[in-house]
Amino acid sequence: MSHTIGRVLVIGGGIGGLTAAVALHRRGHQVTVLERAASLEPVGAAISIAPNALRALDVIGLGDEIRDLAAWQGDGGLRTPGGRWLSRSSAEASAERFGGPLVLLHRATLVASLAAGLPQGAVRTAADATLVDPGDADRPARVRTPDGEWEADLVVAADGIHSAVRRELFPEHPGPVYSGFTTWRIVIPLPGVGFAPHETWGRGSLWGTQPLKDGRVYAYAAAAVPAGGRAPDDERAELLRRFGDWHEPVPAVLAAARPEGVLRHDVHHLAEPLPALHRGRVALVGDAAHAMPPMLGQGGNQAIEDAIVLAHRHDDLAAYTAERLPRTTAVARQSVKAARLNLMSGRTATAVRNTAIAALSKAVPALLLRGFDSVAGWRPPQQPYASGNTPAGNR
Question: E strands along 195-316, which residues?
Answer without folding.
Answer: 198-201, 205-211, 216-223, 263-269, 278-279, 282-284
